[in-house]
Amino acid sequence: MFKTVIGLEIHAQLSTPTKAFCSCPADTFGDTENTAICPVCTGQPGTIPVLGEETVRLSVMSALALNCQVSEISCFDRKNYFYPDLPKGYQITQYFRPLARNGFIEVRVGNGRKSHIRINRIHIEEDAGKTIHEGASSISASGKQGGTLVDLNRCGIPLVEIVTEPDITSSREARLAMESIRDILRYIGVCTGDMEKGALRCDANISVINTRNGQSSNRVEVKNINSFRFVEKALDYEYKRITQAMKDGKEVVKETRTWDLASKTTITMRKKEEESDYRYFPEPDLPPLRITGSYLEEVKKMLPELPDEKIDRFMRDYALPEHDAVVLVSDKELSGFFEETVKVTQRPKEVSNWLTGDLLRILKERDMTVGQSELVPDHIVDLLRLLDSRTISISVAKEIFSECVRLGKMPSNIVEEKGLQQVDDEEEIESAIRQAMKDNPKAVDQYRAGKKAVLSYFIGAVMRRTKGRADPAVAGSVARRLLEDD
Ligand code: ADP
Ligand code: MG
Ligand code: ZN
């Protein structure tokens, strides 16, 4: 038997207006290369970094939301290494005295169960630039084939690094933990969580213990994972690779690997660097950061209700199943929309069904958010009323709902305009069924021979003839009567 041990190091980009230590803009995604830079973030000799206020506020908010103890004094250090995207030759980080320690998150793993994952530390650091490796087919400015370009726009963008304890026990739990951290950071507005834009990435560390003999493998680190799916896949792959090596009695090398998109495997990047390789030392140009009690109180007041609390409240106050609450809360806008609607209709489960089912499907198809759609709470209130009074059938309601999302028209107006009132005139339904019986005598024989499932064919025929306006229950009972009588 093997037991998996996983710890995550998550890098989240803070949504500050400027970079951490200069006044360059921090939102550089999509900008022309090397335009959001200045002497400070490119490390020109004689320049001095100055810590931005928003960087402090947002990182303290993150620490509080992740239940950490914020240190009164934290310090900045230099992490030295050479790479073309790091013109200073070091990154400013907080190594010896981080901003905060000893936090935790409660990750919902399904069936009402929560997994307690401790956070070891959170510290502030700056991002490095980006190297762009051109394919051999491209010609560089100097006329050479291929080559590597450097974009320094990301240099100095403020990040918080969130380091979990190795409390995670499966690849799925790792993914859920990462999603849950993303949700928290989004809720409090400190990070967009956009992984495709590099605003959130993670390094996943994994080791495996053989529970028979207690032997543990070395730890392997998979660097720079930029999607939730890849976290899970990379860790699944590593689990298989490591356990195979252990079964074969081979050593698992302590190393840094990377998830390779093309081969769907992890590949070796380098031998794991040791602490001493980075020659950490205190950053002489930045004074210690002091967080006073009153500042902490001020920031605490800015914290909104967090996703986990909100899920609990939705389950308690609206009697929603956990799944509904999780889906609604995962999108702050959606959960607000839900609460606004329920204030008027007081029918939380039905409202939740419309929002988590039809609405999310339509939004996904159109790549939109709730706010970008035309839907307002009154549409749902109106729609439920039309269903209650049996003015429309459920299939018509679904059609109307999609129009509300796209065009913002009131359901009752759509019903009027298009004449979508439910057909409860049994004569019309009866004639539709008689027609279907004439068209398909084989189906009639099958039904009479005992194949009762054929009933749905006749209901379907009625729906088609009435363009979905018939009440399926009425259509079913009329069809049964006609098929059994005649
Ligand atoms: P480093 O700075 O070398 O990456 P850290 O001690 O800061 O090392 O740990 C980094 C990450 O590795 C943390 O998320 C931690 O939870 C995880 N980790 C530590 N020990 C193990 C282990 N035995 N197996 C898996 N992950 C581990
Ligand atoms: Mg690491
Ligand atoms: Zn700058």
In short:
With 486 residues, this protein is α+β, with helices and mostly antiparallel strands.
Verbal overview:
By secondary structure, the chain is an alpha+beta fold. It folds into 3 domains: 2-295, no CATH class; 305-418, no CATH class; 426-485, Arc Repressor Mutant, subunit A (Orthogonal Bundle), CATH 1.10.10. 40% of the residues lie in helices and 22% in strands. It is built from 15 helices and 17 strands. The chain has helices at 53-65, 171-187, 228-247, 293-302, 307-317, 322-329, 332-345, 348-366, 377-388, 394-407, 411-418, 426-439, 441-448, 455-465, 472-485; strands spanning 2-13, 69-70, 73-74, 77-80, 90-93, 100-110, 113-126, 130-139, 145-151, 158-164, 200-210, 215-216, 220-225, 255-260, 265-271, 281-282, 289-290. Strands 1, 2, 6, 7, 10, 11, 12, 13, 14 and 15 form a 10-stranded mixed β-sheet that branches. The chain has a 3-stranded antiparallel β-sheet with strand order 5-4-16, with no helix packed on it. It is elongated. The termini are far apart. 36% of the residues are buried. The model has no long low-confidence stretch (mean pLDDT 91). Bound molecules: adenosine-5'-diphosphate, magnesium ion and zinc ion (ZN). Magnesium ion (MG) is lined by residues 9, 203, 221. Zinc ion is lined by residues 19, 22, 24, 37-38, 40-41, 156.
